[in-house]
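Researcher: Batch entry, complex prediction.
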Amino acid sequence: MSALMTASEQPPRPDGRVSTGVPGLDAVLNGGLVTSGVYIVVGEPGAGKTLLANQLCYHQGRAGARCLYVTLLAESHARMLANMRDMAFFDPALLPEGVYYVSGFRTLEEQGLPGLLELLRREVRNHNASILVLDGLVQAQEAAGSSRDFKKFIHELQVAAGLARFTALMLTSSNGPTVHPEYTMVDGILELRERTLGVRSWRELQVRKFRGGATLTGVHTFRISNEGLEVFPRLEARVRRSQPPAPDAARVHFGIPSLDDMFPAGLAAGSTTLMLGPPGSGKTLMGSSLLAEGVRQGEPCLYMGFYEAPERLLHKLAAVGMDLGDAARAGRMHIVWQPPAECILDVLAHQLLSTVERHGIRRVFVDGLSAMGQAAPDGSRMSSFFAALTQELRYLKATTLFSLETPRLFGTVLDMPLEVGPSAVAENLLFLRHVELEGRLRRLLSIFKLRDADFDPSLREFVISQRGIEVQPPFDSTLDTLLTGLARRASGAHP
Amino acid sequence: METILVVDDEQGILEALADLLREEGYRVLTASHGREALERMAELRPDLVLTDWMMPVLDGPALIERIRGEAAWAGVALLGMSAVDVGALRVQYPGIPFLQKPFDIPALMRQVRKALDGGGRASLG
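Model: Structure tokens for the complex:
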């Protein structure tokens, strides 16, 4: 089994942990909440706190636990339940035995924090609850006569949780500082927030404090759907620290004889290749050739693309003699298509890695690395993200080819459209380009780098026809500056 | 004037229901849980108890059981209300009408009138 858990999978749960039922969150928490711990979930209104707490309750309720959900001036229970009805985790059959809702607001108003504490202790005991949610901690904080009183309340709740063996989750809005000094007494603090850049927004979770073990540090993306919350742990934080397995002795070919002749030993199985080229230079067909050959060899293959829908892609490939339709229908060739709008980087990584792992994919072609890069609002993590991604793919023994579109059609400058060096992404580097020669545009191919194998460094023209791709003999040696896309005769040379 | 005891732990709902029923001409008592409801009933016997189901201290089922077990309160009309699926509660507690939360005002008033007119009487045993 891969040591990297996909968001839908949960790690083995150590004893004394409470599963949250939120995919990906237990992985962030290294197994879940600690039994009898007291936790604060903080976030602005609409951040997903109530949803998270309910998801936990119904998950635990399904497993036979009893959960007590106490509200303080929150939305009415009827409205809360109405909002939950469309959620996949919601199960009305668990009410009221599995999940029990009560309001503590009047008790808080009339009897203050001591009365509320007594209510919590008594109701936990009456319902034999192992999970307590207190929704609206900010009301309790406001009702406290002093900071000391509030600390005392939290301390006494911790004592009660330890004695009665219940795990408490207290939800609070973030007004002013996210983490009040009083909050530092609790066993853990989870912060939920929504961030916006331009017109785009996304949700983030961060474990600000956690007693009882290491957690995945930093910021993790989460999303809310009818399935509830789903956390996508930041890839770099969960990547394996051990050495990848030793390289496989097997070699991988494109299945294009004239191209494979340029590096007879082929690509190392499990290696990563970056293919650079401007629009229309043949990247999709070249990469798909690698997959078509994999299908011929009986290897499960994956195409992950952003711009062409699966049917359109298959039609385009069939037009050049690469009929992968049957393989796609038979599940030997998998296609993940993700339109580039509003993508989340860690969701894409999850899609890619979980598909590779689930289907034992041996060859991967990610067609459009820049679309993946655009899914990250913060470009500063790209190098570490792609390093982590390629390392995981190596662990999974998938031979991977990334295509990356270069913005300039011609010129002496080669732009890298990502804030990442090629060596962070790939061991092998292919370069495609248009070149103007003798009054027409031709496609040029060059191998820049190939690790652990000899290769032909000459510049080659390649032709795309109904028979597929054919690589031509090396260009005329009297031609210079082919890589700029504008060829010219070397001085003194005659055509 | 008929007297209705409204029992709900959610303060906002309790106050809203009390106001609505007073506007309809009923005398209204309020309690935020079952034990408080029993204290109110000891002071003034209501004609109808309109009670929530999930509450702290003493919940709806326990309150109903206590009312049914007390001879002095025989004949008090009972009406349950809950955010939980009341279909299952109707099966579990036959003879007690239930309002499904959230409800609209006309439905509330119809059910209250119906209960006062004879549906859902508390009886011994």
